[in-house]
Amino acid sequence: MAIETPAPVAAPAYWHTLGVDEALNKLQSDPEQGITSKEVAVRIERYGTNELTEKAGRSPLQIFIDQFTNIMLLMLMAVAVVSAVLDIQAKEFPKDAVAISSIVVLNGILGYMQEMNAEKALAALKRLSSPKVRVIRNGEILEISGKELVPGDIMLLEAGVQVAADGRLLEEQNLQVRESALTGEAEAVNKEAHLILEADASLGDRLNCVYQGTEVVQGRAKVLVTKTGMQTELGKIASLIQDVETEDTPLQQRMSQLGNVLVTGSLILVAIVVGIGLLNKGNFGDLLKTSLSMAVAVVPEGLPAVVTVTLALGTQRMVRRNALIRRLPAVETLGSVTTICSDKTGTLTQNKMVVQGIRTGQHSLQVSGDGYVPTGEFTILGNPPEDSHLTVNNIPEVQQLLMACVFCNDSILQQKDGEWIIIGDPTEGALLVLASKGGCDFSEWQHRMPRVFEVPFSSERKRMSVLVQGEHGGNVLFCKGSPELTLECCTHIQIGDQIHAIADFQRQHVLAQNNELASRGLRVLGFAYRTLPELPAGGITEKDESNLVWVGLVGMLDAPRPEVREAVKRCREAGIRPVMITGDHQLTAKAIAEDLGIAFKGDQVITGKELELMSQSELEQQVNQVSVYARVSPEHKLRIVQALQKQHNFVAMTGDGVNDAPALKQADIGIAMGITGTDVSKEASDMILLDDNFATIVAATEEGRVVYTNIRRFIKYILGSNIGEVITIAIAPILNFSVPLIPLQILWMNLVTDGLPALALAVEPAEPNVMKRPPVDPRENIFARGMGSYMVRIGIVLAIITISLMVWAHGYTTTHFDNVYSANRWETMVFTTLCIAQMGHAIAIRSNTQLTIELNPMTNPYVWGSVIMTTVLQLVLIYVEPFRIFFGTYLITSTELAVCFGFSALMFVWIELEKLAIRWWLWQRQS
C-alpha cells in the first residue's frame, strides 16, 4: 500500500516534544518497512538532498578588482595616467607612470593575497554531513550515502557510526552519543527513546533525539529522520556562518580613514597651490607637474607593504608562542580585545574528568591531581586530632569503594609516549585514576578477581552492576550509578570495617552529601556492593541488585587547566574581561568560573532557557554584567557576541566545536583550539591555539599590543616625512622655484628611504608596561593620542629645514655655476637632505621620552643597519652614473654633501630636544 506524501513540516518542528507514534504519523513512515523508493524520489524533490548549500560570494576576479577601489590607489592611478600623457607628449619614456603603475599593481596583489584566504568553514561542515548510513526502505536494510536521506527514512545506528541527519529516536539499546561537535561537551549523552520533553529543552537536554554530525559511542538505535540538509542543527550552523558579515579590523578601518584624510588634504593643498600659481600667472604645465609630485608625495606607497611585513613578523613570533594566525590583520586586532568569550570544555578545562571528592558514611576526602596522571593526595577533611593517624590506606570503606571503581569499569588507563591516556569513557577512566592514586593496582585486581557477569549502564536503570569471582571462593557484586537510585537498593551501610543496617538519618546524610557535591558542579556517582555465596545461573537479576551495602560517593569534574587561573588574572590586569559561554550545566559552569576567577560569589548566571525569553535589547542591557552563560546553543553564542559588540566591546571568542563556528566568525577575533578543535571551528577562526592553552591567548594579546604600538610608530615616521615632502613641494612654486622633486624620486623616498627604516622599527621590542594598561579603543582615531599633532609638527620642521637648505643651495649653485646642468644641483641637494633627515628621524623615534644615547642599540640593531644601508643607497643614486641618469640626480661636491648632512642632522636634534621638553613637563607635573 502506497504511503501518502506528507505536507512539508512547519519549521521549527519540536520533534523532542512528540511521542514515537505521533512523530511517525507526522511523517507517515513505518518503523519496520520504512518508505518506498518511489516516495524517496518524491521527498528528495520536495526537501532536496541532505547536503549543506553555499551562498554565492565574490569571485576571485571581483576580489582582485575591489583592491583597486582604495582611494589612495585611485589617486595614484590618476597620477600615472596624467604623467604618462605628459611624458608621451614630450616624447620621453614614461618611467614615472611605469613606476607608479607597478606600485599600484603590487599593492593590489598584496591586498588580494590577504583577502583570498578562502572561506573553508562550510567545506569542513560538509565533510561532517555526508557519511555512509544504513536505512530501512521497502522493508529492506540498505546502505546509502548520507546525502540521499530524506525526512521519513528509518535510520539504523550502532557504535562507531556518525549520525547523518537529525532524527527522533524510535527505539534504542544502551545508546550513548557524543555531541561535542554541537554542544561542545565531551561527555557522551545517554539517549532515551520513550521520553517526551518540554518545548524549551535545550539542545544538550534533548535526550530523545539525535543530530547530524554527532557520533554514536555505545549501543544501537532505530531513528526516524526528521530533518535533512540546511534544516538540520548542523545546517543552521552553516546558515549562521554564511550570514555573518565580516567587518574590517580596526587597523583596516584606520588605514581607510588615513587614506581619506591624506587624499582630501592633498587635493585641498593642490587646489591652493594651483590657485595661487594661476593668480600669479604661473605656467599651467609647471603647476600640473607640481600637483603630480604632491599627489605622489602624499600617498605612502610603501605603507601597505610595511604593514603586511610587520604583521607577518608578528605571526612568526606568535607561532613561537603557540598561536597560529590565519588572517594577518588579526595580529593587530588582538591589541584591542576587551572581552574574551571562552568555551569551558577543553579550553578552560583539561577535557579530562578528574575525581575531586569522596564521601563515605563517616569520612569526607578531598583528592588532588591533574588530568589522567595517576598521582595525587587524599586529604581527610575535618579530621579530628584523635584520627590524625588515618590515611586512605587504613579506611576500609574507602578501600572497598576503590575496588568498586576498578571493577565497575570498562576503560583502560595506559601511558603512551610519556602521556597518560584513557581508552574508553572519560568518567570510568577517572575512576581508574582515582584507584591508582589510592595505591590500587587495578590490573592485578582484575586478574585476581575476574568478572563473571555484567549488566551495563542504561538510561532506564541509571546504574551498572558487575559480578566478580572472589579470591577465596566468594562472589562480589559491585554497583555504581545514580546516587539516589543506587541508595534505594541499599539496606546496609559500611562504617569502617563494620556493616550496619542503614538508618533513615544515614540515608538523609548520604543525600545531603550528594547535594553538596552537586552544588559544586561535580558529577556524582554512588557505589555499593554485596556478597553472593553462589553464582547466579542466568546472570545478574534485579533481586541480586537488592540488599546492597552502601559504600560512598565519588564527585568528579572536568578540572580547570592549572595555568588558566594566572592567565585570567593577567587578562584582568590588562583590562580584558573573560566570559564563559558553555553548553554545560549552570552549577558546573558557575563552580569552575568561580574557581578560575572569571566569576565571583553572587554573580548572575544566565542559561539558554533564560536567553530564549530575552529580547536582544534586554540581553544588551545585561551583557556587561554577566560572566557565565550555561546550557546555550549556537544561536545563543552568536547573540551574546553580537550583544557585547553592540555595547562597544571588542570581542575575542574561543571555541573548538562545530557549534562555536558562527560565533567565532562573528567575533572581532575568533580563536580555535588546535588539538581538540574541529576543522569547522579552525576554518571559521582568525587564530588557532596550537597547544589548546587559554594562557596562550594572553601571550598572543601581548604580541598584538606590541605590533600595534610599532605600527603607530612607523606610521608616525612615514607620514611625518611625507608631510614634510608635500609642504616642501607646495612651497617651492610659491617661492618661484621649480619643483625640486620628480615623481620617481618621491617614489624612491616613500618606498626605500621610508620603507627600510620603517621595517626596522616594526621589530622594536615590547615596552615593560604593555600588559598593565587598558586595551586600545578599537574606535580610536588613527591620529589619536597626539599622533596627528606629532606628524604635522615633524612635517613642518622637516619642511622648514629642507626649504632653508633649498634657498641656500639655489643661491649657492646659481652663483658659483653657470650652466643649467650645474645650476640644477640644488635639486639633488634638496632630495638628499630630505632622505638623510629621515634617517635621523628613524633613529630618534624609537622612544618618545628616552634619548637615543640612553637606548641600548643592540635591542634593535636593525634600525642602525637600515639607516646605514639607506644612506649608502642614496649615495649610489648620486655617484653611480646609471642610477644617476635614471633617477634624474646630479653630481654634488663633498662640501655640498656635507652641507646636506649638516641640515639633515637638525631633524635628529629637534626630536631629541622635544624629548627633553617632554621630560621636563612630566617632572613639573609630578613636582
UniProtKB/TrEMBL annotation:
<feature type="transmembrane region" description="Helical">
    <location>
        <begin position="886"/>
        <end position="911"/>
    </location>
</feature>
<protein>
    <submittedName>
        <fullName>Cation-translocating P-type ATPase</fullName>
    </submittedName>
</protein>
<feature type="transmembrane region" description="Helical">
    <location>
        <begin position="741"/>
        <end position="763"/>
    </location>
</feature>
<feature type="transmembrane region" description="Helical">
    <location>
        <begin position="714"/>
        <end position="735"/>
    </location>
</feature>
<feature type="transmembrane region" description="Helical">
    <location>
        <begin position="829"/>
        <end position="849"/>
    </location>
</feature>
<dbReference type="InterPro" id="IPR018303">
    <property type="entry name" value="ATPase_P-typ_P_site"/>
</dbReference>
<keyword id="KW-1278">Translocase</keyword>
<feature type="transmembrane region" description="Helical">
    <location>
        <begin position="291"/>
        <end position="313"/>
    </location>
</feature>
<keyword id="KW-0472">Membrane</keyword>
<feature type="transmembrane region" description="Helical">
    <location>
        <begin position="861"/>
        <end position="880"/>
    </location>
</feature>
<dbReference type="InterPro" id="IPR023299">
    <property type="entry name" value="ATPase_P-typ_cyto_dom_N"/>
</dbReference>
<dbReference type="Pfam" id="PF13246">
    <property type="entry name" value="Cation_ATPase"/>
</dbReference>
<keyword id="KW-0067">ATP-binding</keyword>
<dbReference type="InterPro" id="IPR008250">
    <property type="entry name" value="ATPase_P-typ_transduc_dom_A_sf"/>
</dbReference>
<keyword id="KW-0547">Nucleotide-binding</keyword>
<feature type="transmembrane region" description="Helical">
    <location>
        <begin position="790"/>
        <end position="809"/>
    </location>
</feature>
<dbReference type="InterPro" id="IPR023298">
    <property type="entry name" value="ATPase_P-typ_TM_dom_sf"/>
</dbReference>
<feature type="transmembrane region" description="Helical">
    <location>
        <begin position="258"/>
        <end position="279"/>
    </location>
</feature>
<dbReference type="InterPro" id="IPR059000">
    <property type="entry name" value="ATPase_P-type_domA"/>
</dbReference>
<keyword id="KW-0460">Magnesium</keyword>
<dbReference type="Pfam" id="PF00690">
    <property type="entry name" value="Cation_ATPase_N"/>
</dbReference>
<dbReference type="InterPro" id="IPR004014">
    <property type="entry name" value="ATPase_P-typ_cation-transptr_N"/>
</dbReference>
<keyword id="KW-0479">Metal-binding</keyword>
<dbReference type="InterPro" id="IPR006068">
    <property type="entry name" value="ATPase_P-typ_cation-transptr_C"/>
</dbReference>
<keyword id="KW-1133">Transmembrane helix</keyword>
<dbReference type="InterPro" id="IPR036412">
    <property type="entry name" value="HAD-like_sf"/>
</dbReference>
<feature type="transmembrane region" description="Helical">
    <location>
        <begin position="68"/>
        <end position="85"/>
    </location>
</feature>
<dbReference type="Pfam" id="PF00122">
    <property type="entry name" value="E1-E2_ATPase"/>
</dbReference>
<dbReference type="InterPro" id="IPR023214">
    <property type="entry name" value="HAD_sf"/>
</dbReference>
<feature type="domain" description="Cation-transporting P-type ATPase N-terminal">
    <location>
        <begin position="14"/>
        <end position="88"/>
    </location>
</feature>
<dbReference type="InterPro" id="IPR001757">
    <property type="entry name" value="P_typ_ATPase"/>
</dbReference>
<dbReference type="Pfam" id="PF00689">
    <property type="entry name" value="Cation_ATPase_C"/>
</dbReference>
<dbReference type="InterPro" id="IPR044492">
    <property type="entry name" value="P_typ_ATPase_HD_dom"/>
</dbReference>
<keyword id="KW-0812">Transmembrane</keyword>
